[in-house]
Amino acid sequence: MQLVVGGAYSGKRNIVKQSCDKLVWHSAYNGDDFVAYKKSLQPNSTIILEGWEKWVEEQLTNGKTIDEVRSYFIEEIDQLCEIENTSPFHFYFIMLEMGRGIVPMLEKNRNIRDVCGWLLQYASSKAEEVYYCWHGLAKRIK
What we know:
six-stranded mixed beta sheet; about 40% helix
């Protein structure tokens, strides 16, 4: 699994588009449910998962606790890594760097930021490569 992280509109999508062929986009920004990525699996393709903060927000809005949401997505990340290791699929995660150390005033927004931060750390630990993107430039940091 490859991970591309950066702020909003930093060029993350373009970096991924330049890096590989046969991309299958699965995006919360297009209204895709997280688990629906399983319908997107095509042999020898690269599945792009983006919009993690939207999927986290959806879970929290549906009444899950931050610990439940964190555990759910950690289990899903583990499953995605297992799928990649045992089948002809590859995954790119595009994750948003949120806040840059600024703590949101609203509890809901703090919870989203916290869970996304934990998931980003976990995804970084599982990823083969991690790229940080800013101003359309990417630097490999792992």
